[in-house]
């Protein structure tokens, strides 16, 4: 299939921004030991975007209606970037000493609670676990991408391939949940090794899902401007479905955050209350928290409540962009205080973020452009055959054998 | 209600009972939709279709205005938030301030749950009550039930009733019009 | 008609050849049949339920006259059987509204034939649940003190306490579930009114259906309102069991104060609810000849959801133990150790794992999901498992207090069990009355689906599934 849109210019722009940004960020923070904090946040965000797409793709195959088939390509393109995000992990592995207090002998000796867990939180184990997570994710990505490619090439088997992907998606989700939970403990929670929260992994998962869904909406509405097929398939009904998902995810995101807040705020025990003490009593974290509650949840919720908004491509795309911005800020609110930022991000943080993002985007756009934008063979895009017993209705001619063989006698 | 409510009823020629309208009975939902569309084109306005389940396309055919329920629900939601939070704030901060484990009097994280529940409760009740009232329910008597054979409307029959108060209503003409839409029967409905 | 068409197992959402009229006949005939044509199994079931209800009432009288001392609760295990059973019942009371609301929002066509009885199950389970905290108060006759009303004491409830949240959550949930159920029932009640056979039925269904005409304008408003109610009920369902989780999590008891509690409790509730849906649906579809209305597709999908929510619950168990260990806090680590290996209650934890983790794994296989008997058995096992889960969380965590001097072992008394077993009578009596008086299936929605099904087919994978399993297109 020939690429149906020209991605070369945005692709090169993204790639140049990415490489230059990353390099500049590295140079800027040379010798100050501040590079890795910003890099880790950028890594978690962009890897999270690919992971969110992986989860959505699995859910999409498991339970998606026809909207699921329409948005498969953007999700697959994001998932295809998982090997790239594995490469992004390499610098994190080298930055463990700079990032994590548990890698510091003196710190561990002074903190018995941390000493208790160095059997789990230590550099070799950290790296091995990271490799295992990425191995699992890339294996799942490979499974989906290979079957998707086969589905494109062999229309005759498209139904069976689709059903195979559907059948194994449950397992994919199980693996995703276990690995992402442990990965967020490793990469995010252990930045403050005394603190713990059981819902932490779930908060990140839902944040990833918001980002992946929002970016899908952005890509789909963008592609619909140039591609007639996407334009035709992106009906207002499907658009509304996507908007409902975005709204649902944002509600769930608020739910998991509020759950953690109510519990840890009310518990008020020394091991776990530090998270909200820091974020509620210290500016600018307090202000950013209020911003996230109002502009990250309340306003988008009220706006997305309207059906009109969810049926307008431009407006929904704006809401999607806003949701991504909020999730960037949410990631910053969660992680920045733990890596020693006070207030505004350093320039090197911004550059790392843009750098990884540029490279990531270049890769995703390239994957997206390399294939047809609509998985035309997805069975969900075909009208199911009409059974012959539809007598009395002006139905088109049905497959003659359908009704006779439909019934399975007990 | 439209301003034609006072249209003359004496069109019901000769009958002792007043005429409510003419009803046509159909066997399939597509038929009632196309009949409603035809009636709309023919200039009829005061009419309604009766179906065992919601039928797609009838809204447009009957030019049903879009619902305002969403706004009412939103208003009820805001009222719920204010009421729910206000009640807790008043009780804990103003009416009986009590130090519980050093927590602030206005322990807002602990007030989220009840605020949410009160909001949902108020919104749901508003939705249900407004829907029933707008539909005129509960309503012990409705002329449409006088339609012969109407007990099958909740089973598998579809009716289109053009009411006598429609300005374009004319017993013979309307009957002829309805007969043309392919119904099983066209019957007069007494008020 | 009912038996011939409905004796056939099918994997479609709706059995083949169903028409609006045949759906009415299948569902409404047993409801409208005369008292003398009530089947024997109904009388037997109703009689057993009523007998158990008698036990319940005796226990309540005993409780009110003697006091909570008849229970085995004592410090530090102040929450025991009454709260376990409360959480167990309220968990069951989640599937109905969730099936109804969530599957409607996600446009899953298989919702339609199971939502009505699942909603009824929800409401009756909430009744059973709601009575427990009231009875547990010690002086149940003053339970209204929990409500915020102007009073001569000059007091308001303590709104920082999750127990006050509970009251609001459960009463809001019970009310909204009831409204949602009733609004959904109105068109079906009109159907019953229109085919009523005697004066009692005419009066009952005539009054209850409020004069519903099936007007198109009415349907538009109705559908809009119903969708809004669904959209409200969905987060409400999540909030209710989250609130119950907060009852525990807001405290500082090791084993309770975990932030994963709200979502994992919600998953557990849905899990328990779907188990109960299977337990009820499998005999009902047989007794009422509903095989082409509640089809294998429904059982299969319910089983998948059972597996899905079960895995989330297992995730919750894993997170609880992992975080308890990861925290490094002495009490948390001991809680985890005691839960899994402790001399007193290790059996409860492992039985729980056997019920809620091991027993659901066969559901990965289609052959198991296609066997009503296997699903029924798994449903029963899961229900036991969910009771054990609350036992492990509540009792096992409380018996080992922070100080060794206040360790205490809990043993339920006769009255603990009598009240619990009696609550099945309350549930059963209500449910059997429902079966006799109201349609088990949402007929108006089924009719819409029959129409849609005749034109567009059952679901996207209907034929592919048949090919895949070598059934020669017999999807």
Main structural class of chain A: mainly alpha
- Strand content of chain B is 5-15%
User: Which residues of chain B sit in consecutive blocks of at least 5 with pLDDT less than 50?
Assistant: 1-15
Please work out how many helical segments of chain B DSSP would assign.
5
The radius of gyration over CA of chain A amounts to 23 Å
Key traits:
heterotrimer, B: 191 residues, 2 domains, disordered N terminus, C: 475 residues, mainly alpha, globular, disordered C terminus
Description of the molecule:
Chain A has 410 residues and is mostly helical. Chain A has one domain. Helix content of chain A is 74%, strand content 0%. In chain A, helix 4 (72-80) crosses helix 18 (347-369) and helix 13 runs parallel beside helix 17. The radius of gyration of chain A is 23 Å and the shape is globular. Chain A starts with 7 loop residues before the first helix and ends with a helix. The model of chain A is unreliable at 384-410 (pLDDT under 50). A four-stranded antiparallel sheet of chain B has the order 2-3-1-4, covered by helices on one side. Chain B is an alpha+beta fold and 191 residues long. Chain B has two domains: 3-66 and 141-190; 69-134, no CATH class. In chain B, 42% of the residues lie in helices and 13% in strands. Mean pLDDT of chain C is 87; it is low at 1-5 and 470-475. Chains in contact: A-B, A-C, B-C. Chains A and C meet through helix 8, helix 10, helix 11, helix 13 and helix 19 of A and helix 9, helix 10, helix 11, helix 17 and helix 18 of C.
């Amino acid at each position: 299939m020939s690429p149906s849109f020209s991605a070369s210019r945005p692709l090169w722009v993204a790639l140049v921004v990415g490489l230059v940004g990353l390099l500049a960020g590295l140079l800027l923070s040379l010798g100050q030991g501040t590079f890795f904090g910003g890099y880790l946040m950028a890594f978690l965000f962009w890897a999270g975007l690919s992971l969110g797409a992986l989860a959505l793709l699995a859910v999409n195959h498991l339970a998606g209606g026809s909207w699921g088939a329409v948005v498969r390509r953007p999700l697959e393109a994001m998932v295809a970037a998982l090997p790239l995000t594995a490469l992004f992990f390499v610098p994190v592995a080298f930055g463990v000493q700079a990032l994590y207090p548990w890698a510091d002998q003196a710190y561990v000796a002074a903190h018995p609670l941390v000493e208790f867990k160095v059997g789990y939180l230590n550099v070799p184990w950290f790296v091995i676990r990271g490799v295992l997570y990425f191995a699992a994710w890339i294996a799942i990505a490979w499974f989906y991408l290979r079957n998707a490619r086969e589905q494109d090439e062999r229309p005759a088997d498209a139904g069976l391939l689709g059903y195979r992907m559907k059948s194994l998606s449950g397992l994919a989700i199980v693996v995703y949940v276990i690995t992402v939970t442990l990965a967020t403990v490793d990469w995010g929670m252990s930045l403050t090794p005394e603190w713990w929260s059981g819902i932490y992994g779930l908060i990140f998962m839902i944040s990833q899902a918001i980002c992946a869904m929002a970016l899908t909406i952005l890509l789909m509405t963008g592609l619909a401007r140039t591609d007639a097929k996407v334009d035709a398939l992106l009906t207002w009904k499907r658009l509304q479905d996507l908007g409902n998902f975005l709204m649902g995810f944002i509600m769930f995101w608020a739910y998991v955050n509020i759950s953690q807040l109510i519990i840890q705020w009310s518990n008020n025990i020394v091991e776990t209350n530090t998270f909200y003490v820091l974020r509620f009593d210290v500016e600018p974290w307090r202000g950013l928290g209020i911003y996230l509650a109002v502009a990250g949840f309340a306003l988008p919720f009220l706006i997305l409540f309207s059906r009109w908004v969810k049926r307008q491509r431009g407006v929904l795309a704006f809401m999607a962009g806003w949701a991504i911005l909020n999730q960037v800020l949410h990631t910053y609110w969660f992680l920045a205080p733990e890596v020693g930022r006070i207030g505004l991000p350093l320039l090197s943080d911004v550059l790392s973020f843009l750098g990884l993002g540029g490279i990531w985007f270049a890769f995703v756009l390239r994957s997206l452009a390399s294939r047809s934008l609509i998985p035309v063979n997805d069975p969900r895009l075909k009208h199911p055959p009409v059974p012959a017993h539809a007598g009395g209705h002006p139905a088109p001619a049905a497959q003659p054998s359908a009704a006779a063989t439909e019934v399975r006698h007990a | 209600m439209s301003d034609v409510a006072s249209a003359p009823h004496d069109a019901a020629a000769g009958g002792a009972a007043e005429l409510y309208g003419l009803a046509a009975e159909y066997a399939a939902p597509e038929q009632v939709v196309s009949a409603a569309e035809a009636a709309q084109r023919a200039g009829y306005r005061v009419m309604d279709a009766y179906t065992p389940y919601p039928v797609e396309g009838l809204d447009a055919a009957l030019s049903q205005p879009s619902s305002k329920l969403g706004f009412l629900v939103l208003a009820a939601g805001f009222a719920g938030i204010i009421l729910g939070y206000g009640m807790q704030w008043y009780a804990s901060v103003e009416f009986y301030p009590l130090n519980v484990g050093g927590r602030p009097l206005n322990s807002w994280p602990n007030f989220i749950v009840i605020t949410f529940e009160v909001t949902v409760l108020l919104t749901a009740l508003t939705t249900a009550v407004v829907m029933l009232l707008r539909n005129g329910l509960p309503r012990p008597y409705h002329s449409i039930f006088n339609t012969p054979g109407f007990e099958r409307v909740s089973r598998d029959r579809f009716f289109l009733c053009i009411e006598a108060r429609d300005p374009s209503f004319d017993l013979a003409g309307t009957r002829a019009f309805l007969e043309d839409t392919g119904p099983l029967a066209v019957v007069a409905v007494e008020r | 008609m009912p038996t011939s068409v409905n004796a056939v197992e099918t994997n479609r959402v709706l059995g083949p050849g169903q028409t609006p009229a045949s759906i009415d006949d299948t569902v409404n005939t047993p409801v409208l049949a005369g008292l003398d044509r009530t089947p024997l199994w109904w009388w037997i079931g109703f009689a057993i339920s009523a007998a158990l209800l008698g036990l319940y009432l005796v226990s309540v009288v005993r409780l009110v006259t003697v006091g909570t001392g008849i229970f085995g609760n004592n410090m530090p295990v102040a929450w025991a059987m009454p709260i376990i059973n409360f959480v167990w019942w309220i968990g069951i009371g989640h599937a109905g509204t969730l099936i109804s609301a969530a599957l409607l929002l996600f446009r899953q066509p298989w919702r339609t034939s199971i939502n009505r009885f699942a909603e009824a199950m929800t409401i009756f389970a909430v009744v059973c649940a709601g009575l427990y905290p009231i009875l547990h108060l010690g002086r149940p006759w003053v339970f209204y003190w929990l409500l915020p009303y102007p009073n001569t004491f000059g007091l308001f409830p303590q709104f920082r306490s999750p127990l006050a949240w509970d009251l609001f959550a459960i009463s809001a949930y019970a009310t909204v579930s009831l409204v949602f159920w009733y609004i959904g029932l109105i068109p079906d009640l009109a159907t019953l009114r229109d085919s009523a056979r005697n004066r009692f039925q005419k009066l009952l269904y005539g009054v209850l259906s409020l004069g519903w005409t099936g007007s198109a304008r009415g349907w538009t408003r109705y559908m809009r309102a119903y969708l809004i109610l669904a959209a409200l009920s969905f987060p409400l369902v999540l909030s209710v069991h989250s609130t119950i989780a907060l009852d525990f999590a807001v405290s500082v008891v090791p084993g309770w104060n975990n932030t994963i509690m709200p979502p994992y409790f919600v998953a557990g509730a849905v899990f328990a609810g779907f188990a109960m849906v299977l337990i009820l649906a499998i005999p009902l579809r047989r007794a009422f000849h509903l095989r082409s209305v509640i089809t294998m597709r429904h059982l299969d999908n319910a089983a998948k959801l059972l597996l899905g929510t079960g895995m989330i619950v297992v995730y919750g168990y894993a997170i609880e133990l992992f975080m308890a260990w990861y925290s490094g806090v002495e009490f948390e680590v001991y809680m985890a150790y005691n839960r899994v290996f402790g001399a007193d209650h290790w059996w409860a934890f492992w039985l729980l794992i056997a019920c809620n983790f091991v027993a659901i794994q066969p559901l990965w296989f289609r052959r198991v999901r296609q066997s009503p008997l296997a699903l029924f058995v798994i449903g029963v096992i899961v229900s036991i498992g969910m009771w054990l889960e609350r036992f492990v969380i509540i009792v096992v965590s409380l018996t080992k207090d922070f100080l060794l001097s206040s360790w205490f072992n809990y043993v339920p008394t006769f009255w603990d069990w009598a009240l619990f077993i009696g609550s099945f009578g309350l549930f059963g009596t209500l449910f059997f009355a429902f079966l006799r008086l109201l349609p088990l299936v949402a007929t108006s929605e089924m009719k819409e689906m029959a129409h849609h099904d005749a034109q567009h087919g059952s679901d996207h994978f209907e034929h592919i599934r048949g090919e895949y399993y070598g059934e020669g297109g017999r999807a």
